[in-house]
Amino acid sequence: MKRILLIFVLTFILQSSYSQSQEAAAYEVDEFNLWNKQIGDTAYVFADQAYLRDAPSLNGKIIDSLVHGTPVYIKSEAYNPSTIRGFKAPWQKISYLYDNKYKEGFIWLGLLDLGHNKNNKSLNFIHGFLRFEKGTSYSEPTYLLEIKCMDNNNLIARNYYPVSLNGQTYTDSKILPNMGLSNLESIHRIGFLGEACGIASTHYYFSWNGQNFETMFQKSSVGDAGVYYYEETILFPSEHNLGANLIIKDIEEGEVIDEYVSEPKYKKTRKREKYYWDGKHAAQVIEMK
Questions:
Q1: Would you say which domain of life the source belongs to (predicted)?
Q2: What single DSSP character describes residue 1?
Q3: pLDDT tens column, 198-209
C-alpha cells in the first residue's frame, strides 16, 4: 500500500512539474517573426492540412484538422518557437469555425499564410512556406515560397519559388495589373524585407493568367550605413516605351568616395538587364558584347 501511494505521489509531482514547465514555456513570447500575426487578425490555413492542438507544442493533443484556405482568427501573442518542416516558427492560439461551431486551439504558425490578397473575382491568393531545404555543396539553403489560388477551400493553382532569407523581419505582398504584358491577368509580388543595415529586401514575382502561376524573376535592394547601396528597379511595358514584350531591370550600385565629409559623394555604376515575355514566360535576354 505504501509503495502504491509513493508511486502516486511521484507521478503527481512529475505531472505537476511538466505542467508548470509547459506553462512557463507558453509565455516565451517571440516578438519577431515573419508571420507577424496580431491579436484580432484574420489568417488563412496555408498547409494542405493543418492540425489544431490543445497545447502550443507537438506534445499537445490533436483536437481538429483544417484544410488550406480556411479562415482562422488570432487570439493570442506568438510564443513557444518550434522547428518543424525544417524551419522555426512560434505557436498562437486561434479560433475557427468547425461543424458550424466556433472552437479554439493552438496552431504552429508555419501552417498559416504569410500573407493574402483577394482579386476582383473574390479569389483568395495566399502564400507561405512549403518547407526549408538545407544547403548542399551544390546549392544554397532555401525556403520554398509557395503561392496558392483558392476559391474558398478549393485549390485552383499553385507554384513555388526558392528564396534565400538572412535576417529579414517582415513581408509584404501586392497584386499588380498585367502591366502591359499579353495573355496575363495579373502579377503577384511577394517581398521579404529587412530593416537593418546590410539586410537585403527582396521581392519575388509570379505571373497569373487566370488559371496558372509562372515564376518570373526577383529584385533586391540593400544599403549599408550610408557607405554603400545596391538597388534594382523593374520596368514593365506599361512603364516604358521600349517594346510590348520587354521587361527591364535597372541596377544601380553606389559606394561612397569619402564617408567622413558632411555631404558624401558616391561612385556609381549602372547596368541594365532585359527580359523577353513570350506570353507565358519571362526569359532573360543575353546580349553579346
A1: Bacteria
A2: -
A3: 899 999 999 999
Rounded CA gap, 53 and 94, in Å? Answer: 10
CA distance 233 to 23: 48
Neighbours of 249 (CB within 10 A): 17
Which ranges in 121-265 belong to alpha helices (H)?
A: none
Number of domains in the chain: 2
Provide, rounded to the nearest whole percent, the portion of the chain with pLDDT above 90: 76
State the Cα–Cα distance between residues 18 and 20, nearest whole angstrom: 5
User: In one letter, which amino acid is 147?
Assistant: I
Measured between alpha carbons, how far is 9 from 271 in angstroms, rounded to an integer? Answer: 74
Assess if residue 193 is contained within a domain.
yes
Residues 101, 184: contact at Cβ < 8 Å?
no
Whether residue 232 is contained in a domain is answered as yes
Residue 23 lies in a domain: no
Q: CA 160 to CA 150: how far, in whole Å?
A: 15
pTM over 0.85: yes
Going through 153-212 in order, the beta strands assigned E by DSSP cover 154-163, 170-176, 186-193, 201-208
Where residue 174 falls (left for φ over 0; alpha for ψ -120 to 50; beta otherwise) is: beta
Q: Which amino acid is at 241?
A: N
User: How big is the CA angle at 253 (ends 193 and 286), to the nearest 5 degrees?
Assistant: 95
Predicted confidence (pLDDT) per residue in 42-99, tens digit = 999 999 999 999 999 999 999 999 999 999 999 999 999 999 999 999 999 999 999 9
Measure the CA–CA gap between 126 and 104, rounded to whole angstroms.
Answer: 22
